[in-house]
Amino acid sequence: MQKKKMPFRVVTIALAVTLLQIFIVLTFNEQRDLTTRYTSLSQWDSHWFANITSSGYYVRPQAKDIQYTNTVFPPGLPALSFVVKKVTGFNARTSTILTSQIATFLFWIYFLLLARRLKTSPSFTAVGVLSVLLYPAAFFFVVGYSDSLFLAMLLGMLFWQNDRRQYSWLVAGIHGCIMTATRIVGIPLIVLPLVHTVFTKGFRGLSNPRPWITTILSGAGAGAFFLFCRLVFGEWFLQVRAHQYWATKPDIGAILNPIFYRFWKPFYIDGVLHPDYLSIMSFQILLAFIITAMSLDIFTYMKHKHFGTFAIRMSLYTTALLTWAFTLTARSHNVSGAFRYMIVPAVLCILGLMGWSAAMDSKKMLPRIVFWVLTLLLSTTITMQMAYIGRYTHRLWVA
Hints:
By secondary structure, this protein is mainly alpha-helical. It contains 17 helices and 2 strands.
């Protein structure tokens, strides 16, 4: 009976947390009425997604200027927004916002299901949820951006590749396909089925074709968009070239650039910490977080050997490290908005620590100290999130 109730409980909690996030962004955006408050959740990139939803992709003759092409934005969110638009009859702008909120609901379902699979106690699950909610850029989940859809598909892929049902590898691949069609940062993550196989079965496990098929299927989302650009606009990597006009030129050497590892003196805007400062500092903060979480887990594993869901947790940390590295190399020439992208490794490390606390025994003092320190640190940023909501909904740049 307990197991039958669990999915309903997960769905109920996921819905409640999603509604809480929507309530927060509607409360702190200072618009006149509820309708205006809701439509104000569509700003900046949201307009591009809504434009693609209503008009599709285009490249005009003056393609050297980014304003003449919208191919910089992958089709994952606009495609689903188009479906929502057809079903509900809402305009493209409202459909984009609603799609992000539906994806947020799905994200929380997978977050809670992974917490359950990691055997996390209810109290540590609650602290994990709170840690995600307190992240300064968490409000981007429920505005017209692709963050929630990307994370929902990423966690979905991680969940299903750790599932033992017959066709779970196929479901994982479908999630991965939508993930890479949602954001270009998902491309290096297609190796996760192979990484997880190595962690669980060793290199001998790679003789099984299923993780390879999952990897190929995951890459098909981005591959299909590249093929679309080639067939329609005559250029395979038009999206990559379009990104360059946003000053997001890839630079692998950025990982070794000391500028990203030194302390920067804080600078402010309108009395709040400037989002660009938070972006440049987020690289070293999140790297320290990833290394600390992974080190704690590996150290404890070496001590206890048989350590619960260690393979799943290592997959989470590996994914966090790949996302961190790809974001740094992709945005090294323009760090603006990077702290929004860093919510991905933050969520993955929080999940990893939740699993670690379960394997470590949540009644012990060390997991409690780690999570309370994390929560207290993030609690200091809640005023920043409120201020950023106000800036975003008044069309002032945040991320």
